[in-house]
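Following up on my earlier thread - several people asked me to post the actual chain instead of describing it. Fair enough. Here it is, all 171 residues.
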Amino acid sequence: AGKSTLASALLKEGYPFITDDLIVIKQNTNGQYCIISGPAQLKLWRDAALHLDHDIEHAQAVNLKTDKYVIPVTHYSDMSMIPIAAFYELNTASQATTFTCERLADTLSLRTLINNAYRYFMLKPLGKLQFFMNDCCQLAQKIAVNKIIRRPDLSELPQIIKRIELDQGET
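Reply from S.P.:
Thanks for posting it. Predicted structure:
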């Protein structure tokens, strides 16, 4: 619900790119949870790419069936492991009149982290479910977990970025 679009908007504000589509989380030697940098590319729908002034004439289509493009990124993080400061779940709601950002408490923050795991159902057969649950519990206790609800259009991107900056003490 706008993750790549928000990443692109953050890039336009001067923030370095970390990853798109999927994040890998690992603990560093100090036990801090970190994101592993991913490929230096964004995948954006046509409307988002145009809204954010990306050149789609020279961009590669993700596939022939969609109007989504691979946008190369030149300003990316030079850190291989980036400490996680907060988690923001992005949601759209057509009835929303303005975006909202709610900091989630205890059980709801844990459930949000679990629900946003990629292919969660595969962990049990692999014998990784207990490790995953332990990591989610620890992460939920160490970082702020937030839920953003926004309108489907892209007009509120600047306000969402300002909210994240305020949360992180950037302004």
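The CA atoms of residues 8 and 89 lie 16 Å apart. That should answer part of your original question.
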